[in-house]
Structure formats: structure tokens, C-alpha cells
């Protein structure tokens, strides 16, 4: 499931299940410390992602989609 399809709590749970099934071997940040560090950094930079990709979401209002976008970004964020 792609983050842009996450709209509800159930969608988010489905998204997380898909990530778990995928595994972390293809992720840049494939250890807990790397992932949590990237998660923090990407949370602080999500507004830049939305601006650069012309996504009309307010990064200051939490949504299930925003959470999925942050997790997706944290997989590869440097």
C-alpha cells in the first residue's frame, strides 16, 4: 500500500502490515537506531517533502497519511 492511499486508521494498520511483510533489507535505514534517527529527522522535514512534491497537505496537522509518509520517508532518509 502506498502512503497516499492511507486515509483511515485501518488503512494505516494495513500499510504497517505491508511494511512488515516487505522486511527491511531494502531500506537504507534498516536497523532500529538508524530508522528512529531518520524518523525524527524526516518528521522535522516533512513540510519540505510536501512543498517539493506539491502535495497539498498541512504538515502541522497530523493525519494517518502524514504518519505513513513520515514512515515511508524514514526508510531511506539520510
Features:
78 residues; mainly alpha; 3 helices; 59% helix; globular
CA radius of gyration is 12 Å
Net shape: globular
Helix content: 55-70%
Helical stretch count?
3
The counted number of beta strands is: 0
Approximately how much beta-strand content do the residues carry?
Answer: under 5%
Low-confidence stretches: none
Strand-and-helix sequence, N→C? Answer: HHH
| Biggest sheet statistics | none
Structural class: mainly alpha
Mean pLDDT across every amino acid position: 94
Distance between the termini: 23 Å
Description:
This protein has 78 residues and is an all-alpha fold. It starts with 8 loop residues before the first helix and ends with a helix. The model has no long low-confidence stretch (mean pLDDT 94). The protein is 59% helix and 0% strand. The longest helix has 21 residues. The protein is globular, with a radius of gyration of 12 Å.
Layout: helices, strands, pairs:
Layout lengths: L8 H14 L9 H21 L11 H11 L4
Task: Provide a concise account of the structure shown.
With 78 residues, the protein is mainly α. Helices cover 59% and strands 0% of the residues.
